[in-house]
Amino acid sequence: MKSIYFDNAASAPMLESVVQSMSQVLMEMTGNPSGTHKHGRKCRAAIEKSRKSIAENFNASIGEIFFTSGGTESNNTALNCSVDQYGVQRIITTPIEHPSVLNTLSFLKTKRGIQVEFLAVDNMGRIDLAELENKINAQNDRTLVSIMHANNEIGVINPIAEIGEICKSNNILFHTDAVQTVGHLPIDLNSMYISFLSASGHKFHGPKGIGFLYVNSNNIIQPFINGGSQERNVRGGTENLAGIVGMAEALEYCKNNLDKKRQHVVALRQYFIEKIKTALPPTVKIMSMEDPEDCLYTILNIMVPQTAKSDLLLMNLDIAGISASGGSACSSGAEKGSHVIGAITNNKQAGKSVRFSFSFLNTTEEVSQTIEVLKKSL
Amino acid sequence: MKSIYFDNAASAPMLESVVQSMSQVLMEMTGNPSGTHKHGRKCRAAIEKSRKSIAENFNASIGEIFFTSGGTESNNTALNCSVDQYGVQRIITTPIEHPSVLNTLSFLKTKRGIQVEFLAVDNMGRIDLAELENKINAQNDRTLVSIMHANNEIGVINPIAEIGEICKSNNILFHTDAVQTVGHLPIDLNSMYISFLSASGHKFHGPKGIGFLYVNSNNIIQPFINGGSQERNVRGGTENLAGIVGMAEALEYCKNNLDKKRQHVVALRQYFIEKIKTALPPTVKIMSMEDPEDCLYTILNIMVPQTAKSDLLLMNLDIAGISASGGSACSSGAEKGSHVIGAITNNKQAGKSVRFSFSFLNTTEEVSQTIEVLKKSL
User: Fold this and answer.
1) Catalytic residues of B
2) A81 included as an active-site residue
3) Which range has the worst mean pLDDT, A259-263, A281-285, B2-6, B348-352?
4) Most buried residue, A125, A215, B29, B334, by most Cβ within 10 Å?
């Protein structure tokens, strides 16, 4: 049985060319990038070449890109440093952020006394920019806005350019978790007001365990992870050399193939949507917005009514060789229900939601097979 | 010109078998380890197999090993969590710890009001256990002791079993940075009182960007990096799967070849010491203790008098194809002088120190060639 991988938003398959580059780095680049000798300089050069390539991708400068161990560390860094170095006392966010934002905010609230305010989201996960402005204006405390670019469970895209303009005119910091969009949507950081942007390599066909944080050059942050003078004194720790090289190569590939990849996946997703509407019972609800202008084209979330059968849906898909995911990644095996679905439906138990997420490697044939399995399971 | 790599304490060369395993993981293990489907379970199984292998190495239990992005993050985690979760108010340490400890302590002092106390070190970098006991007894505040297993610049080994006993009898926490010793010295965590132990993969022929923190099962820590429920809710972020597998394999190799590797390097180092004494001017001083019982056998630090020529020593070695390092890794290129040499000589400008650090891949022939270059350069 050929397996079908529809969990690309959780982790996208590595590109073969990227694996080859990484293997070469692992084998040949002995040395610590901080070493001043030949071995060290070779490592350093590879890191700086990767940084340049990533910065160019976003129309950013090399001094604005800092490597981290992933999107989670990037989010932790932006939020913690805003509090510790910038004296931020209030953070405005949404209830459907990733746990690496929500749990960091919970920590900052409990341990640092930070005020955390949540914007409302509608039944599609959208925020209201007027509410954002009102909240900002209601209080003069030093404020940070942290709003993700696209949601990881339902795919709703937030208007980060407009949010940035609002933050700019109020002279406050703006962080966006762009883990789901980097590599999939073009992002021009020079044309927007964004203080911090988080990204993760394995979401765009790079390796797991590497990411970066963009810090706008108007801001200077102190380390979240203290140590040596790596990353221009902003992030201690010997660099994950192979990971950095692999991430940069994967991003370069995504940039060079963006339109082609996008067209393929948009068509695939549209086919999936049509099949759901025509071949599945009408009780199956599409939770993501259909227009790829409103929703990240790699993500499609559906909900089936809560029944004894629906609880086994993911398992039945898995048995049929189809990997998809529940509302939230749940490493413990115990289903808690998704905080995202809970926020947009006002009911965590509204039904059983399943996220299908795609890459350019998926085919319409795989969609057809999946629809057949869904039909039988429901 | 064949190059000579004597900077193994900065980063040790990867084992070919480890690179092969990692490449296979990168290529074949698509999926997020938190995924509940087939792809995810395969990743999860690889992580847990690695954790088991690492735990067994230290006679620890699998529940005591937490993966991090490296030694620096491990040190940051142990120190920050001691303060945030355990209410530690005073930390006793030494002036020759790694910057990831010293700079974190400086942060905790400035931003969290923690009291930091330094033990004196003698001219060989040794601490006095009586002073440690006196300091502990002088104050009843909640205290953590953070003392490295072996120093990264001069190699001096601290008696962590005895330090642990002192901490145990005073009912306080003990953290040790064992980044330089893991893989090189046997460590039985079941027979010692150690609350936290930090390690880094690339110091024992594994990849850069991965490490682990041992947390004794009597302690439960909250995350330093907040996020998903990875690492049993202790460390958020998708796991660096290939890094974890590579680190576990490298450690397994080191365990299986410990005696052979050690004998080889001890002999090599002894040969180096004899050559320094017989072939170089008597002004060249050996800064590391000679007995491998007192000093980590992979490290040999020498000091040459400060002259115009000595400033070019590392450069001359580099030109001759020999990679060694100054007192401290200095990514900026500006020589600040080593805080370790400063602490043991009471004079940061006492001379020019050079650290040679070895692995089982080095040969006596390489030592002879290096001695010839040193002779010419001095």
Assistant:
1) 330
2) no
3) B348-352
4) A125
pTM beyond 0.90, yes or no: yes
Whole-angstrom Cα distance, residue B332 to residue B316? 19
Residues of B numbered 78-107 whose beta carbons fall under 8 angstroms of chain A's beta carbons: which are they?
A: 84, 98-100, 103-104, 106-107
ipTM for the whole complex: 0.96
Mean pLDDT across chain A, nearest whole number?
94
Residue B34 to residue A202, Cβ atoms within 8 A: no
Q: Report pLDDT for B330.
A: 42
Q: Residue B143 has which token pair?
A: 């205290």
Taking the C-alpha atoms of residue A295 and residue A150, their distance in angstroms, rounded to an integer, is 8
User: Percent of chain B having pLDDT more than 90?
Assistant: 90
Q: Which residue in chain B is spatially nearest to A243 when comparing CA positions?
A: B209
Pairwise CB contact (< 8 Å): A325 & B36: yes
Contact between B60 and B194 under an 8 Å Cβ cutoff? The reply is no
Q: Which two tokens stand for residue A217?
A: 């050059």
Residue A261, pLDDT above cutoff 90 = yes
pLDDT in tens, A225-239: 999 999 999 999 999
Q: Give the residue-averaged pLDDT of A204-233.
A: 95
What domains are there in chain A, each with its CATH number?
4-12+258-377 (3.90.1150.10), 16-256 (3.40.640.10)
